[in-house]
Amino acid sequence: MVWTQGCSLGCAGCFNPETHAPAGPVRTVPDVVAEVLAAGAGDGVTVSGGEPLEQPEALAAFCAALRQGPDPGIVVLTGFARAEIERDPVLAAAVADADMVVAGRYNARLHLGAGLRGSSNKEYWPITARYSAEDFGTVPEGEILIAADGTATITGMRPMTGMLRTTGKDARGAR
Ligand code: SF4
After folding, report:
1. What is the C-alpha separation between 73 and 63, in angstroms, rounded?
2. Mind telling me which Gene3D superfamilies this protein's record contains (predicted)?
3. Among 8, 29, 154, 171, which lies 20 to 30 A Cα-Cα from 18?
């Protein structure tokens, strides 16, 4: 999972307000690609945020680099709607090398408990035939990964605040 920092879309009820400020350490695309490859891209890479499409050139370069390498499946989670992406050549280019885009603003009133859409108004948009919406139907609402060094990483569609008492160094939620 790659998290991008910075989002100005302002969905009410967003689970990741700490990712909204466009601040923090700046990573280069080659640096992030190298880290992803070193970790083992496995069956796929998911890019979330924050808002990946507010860094469209970097996202395009990241996806293209993976395509030229191990060619893992690439899923992009974005708050932009498909129509917004399709009418903007820069945004369209940013997801051209992805396999699946999960597109649209999060709507708390339409929250879903499983899958990658977060809320039912969001759209699975397959760019290639690699994945279908059914492939993500059983993704749980949340997941806690505890590494050998005790580091706990919380991911998923809803933060599990209060469920985990951790001494780990990194615990964060994802949308
Ligand atoms: S749900 Fe996603 S797109 Fe919406 S404000 Fe939060 S990070 Fe931004």
Report:
1. 10
2. Aldolase class I
3. 29
Mean pLDDT of the region 49-69: 95
Which tokens hold the place of 121? 């108004």
CB burial class (10 A; 0-12, 13-18, 19+) of residue 115? buried
**Is residue 76 within 8 Å of 95, Cβ to Cβ?**
yes
4, 8, 18, 130, 141 from 104: Cα distances, Å: 17, 14, 20, 21, 18
Q: What pLDDT does 171 receive?
A: 39
- Residue 59 Cα, ligand 1 centroid: separation in angstroms? 17
Query: How far does the centroid of ligand 1 lie from the alpha carbon of residue 99, in Å?
Result: 21
- Distance set, CA 148 to CA 6, 152, 165 (Å): 30, 9, 16
Tell me how far CA of residue 86 lies from CA of 103, 104, 113, in angstroms: 11, 12, 28
pLDDT recorded at residue 163: 46
